[in-house]
Amino acid sequence: RSGSNNRRFIEAILWIVRTGSPWRDLPTVFGNWNTIYKRYRDWVKADVCTRLFEVCSDEPDMEYAMVDATIVKVHRHGQGSKGGLRARL
Question: Is the pTM of this model over 0.90?
Answer without folding.
Answer: no
